[in-house]
TrEMBL record:
Keywords: DNA-binding, Transcription, Transcription regulation. The keyword Transcription regulation applies. Coiled coil: none annotated. InterPro entries: Cro/C1-type_HTH, HTH_LacI, LacI/GalR-like_sensor, Lambda_DNA-bd_dom_sf, Peripla_BP_I. Residues 5-58 form the HTH lacI-type domain. Residues 4-52 form the HTH cro/C1-type domain. PANTHER family: LACI-RELATED TRANSCRIPTIONAL REPRESSOR, TRANSCRIPTION REGULATOR, MEMBER OF GALR FAMILY. One of its GO terms (molecular function) is DNA-binding transcription factor activity. This is Uncharacterized protein. It comes from the Bacteria.
Length: 329
């Protein structure tokens, strides 16, 4: 009935989101074809938003950012680039730390939806069915970072490709026994995909004698897992899922009188600055974490403005060769 429709009705009839209708009323960026469609509906139904509705509809210029932890070099790079890009575009970041708790992560997402931020960047610990339902029913756009998400938009590291590159790098030196320090499979990207890449890379060189253990991301976990593997027998190489785990490995090897790389080769993932302080410097694979944050933020703002974006985008990596791998003569 004329004059009785709501902003939700306009969004439904125009085939757009409510946030798009909000931008229309607040002079924000809306495609011309969409603008015309909304205007035609307004004129047909003689819709006049009251002042309160306009206030509710107003964009916050705030983007919610959900992070698995703040105690990580990689996360620090990601959030720094997100903040810089958003500030350049006139937005602010509201950061929520999940402390590696999936339950808290889900609560953080719901809280940001309730706060009606303009969009959410979710650097997920994992993607559960609860995550999928929350994102699917969210009235605001969500871009997932660092985890593959097949039902929406995501920006990810090439964990499989990086793992395979590192596995092949070690495999070509033909080690007899390799140890793998991994993380729990609740983190699908690092715990499953990266590990699968490493094992496939080793198999390319017919290296099948691999002992794999898993733990959390801490330095202490690196110590515990290295001790566990060495107690089972000698190792020729240790592949660590993160640089921090490699730091723990270095300590245990030194305590046991084993030299890097003469006795045991060690490699990591992350490209932490501290890796250059180790003696010898750690061979590690560095992901473009700044690029992940920048691309994620750019993608989210494009979605908010209803600009086309790829469903899945992958950021690059590169090898940093230290002196921690024994080369065949």
């Amino acid at each position: 009935m004329p004059g009785k429709i709501t902003m939700d009705d306009i969004a439904s009839m125009a085939g757009v989101t409510k946030s798009t209708v909000s931008r229309y009323f607040n002079g924000g960026s809306v495609k011309e074809s969409t603008r015309v469609k909304i205007q035609e509906i307004i004129e047909e139904y003689k819709y006049e938003p009251n002042a309160f509705a306009r206030l509710k509809a107003r964009e916050s210029n705030v983007i919610g950012v959900v992070l698995p932890t703040l105690n990580s070099k990689i996360t620090s790079r990601v959030v720094t680039s997100i903040g810089r890009f958003l500030r350049e575009q006139g937005y602010e970041a509201l950061i929520k730390d999940s402390d590696h708790s999936v339950e808290l992560e889900l609560k953080n997402i719901q809280r940001l939806i309730t706060l009606k931020v303009d969009g959410i960047l979710l650097s997920a610990i994992t993607i559960t069915e609860e995550h999928r339902e929350l994102i699917r029913n969210s009235p605001i756009p969500v871009v997932v970072l660092a985890q593959d998400y097949d039902q929406g938009n995501c920006v990810v590291y090439d964990d499989y490709g990086a793992g395979k590159a590192m596995g092949s790098y070690i495999g070509r030196e033909h080690p007899v026994r390799v140890g793998y320090l991994g993380v729990y499979e609740s983190d699908e990207a690092v715990g499953i995909t990266r590990k699968r890449g490493v094992l496939d890379g080793l198999r390319e060189w017919n290296v099948d004698n691999v002992s794999a253990v898993s733990g959390d991301y801490s330095y202490e976990s690196g110590i515990r897992m290295t001790e566990e593997l060495l107690d089972q027998g000698p190792l020729d190489a240790l592949i660590c899922a993160t640089d921090r785990l490699a730091f723990g490995a270095y300590r245990v090897l030194a305590q046991r009188g084993l030299r890097v790389p003469e006795d045991v080769s060690v490699v990591g993932f992350g490209g932490y600055d501290e890796s250059t302080l180790l003696k010898p410097e750690l061979t590690t694979l560095k992901f473009d974490s700044y690029g992940l944050g920048y691309l994620g933020a750019e993608t989210l703002l494009k979605i908010i403005k209803e600009e086309p974006v790829p469903k899945k985008q992958i950021v690059d990596y590169h090898m940093i060769e230290g002196g921690s791998v024994k080369k065949r003569k």
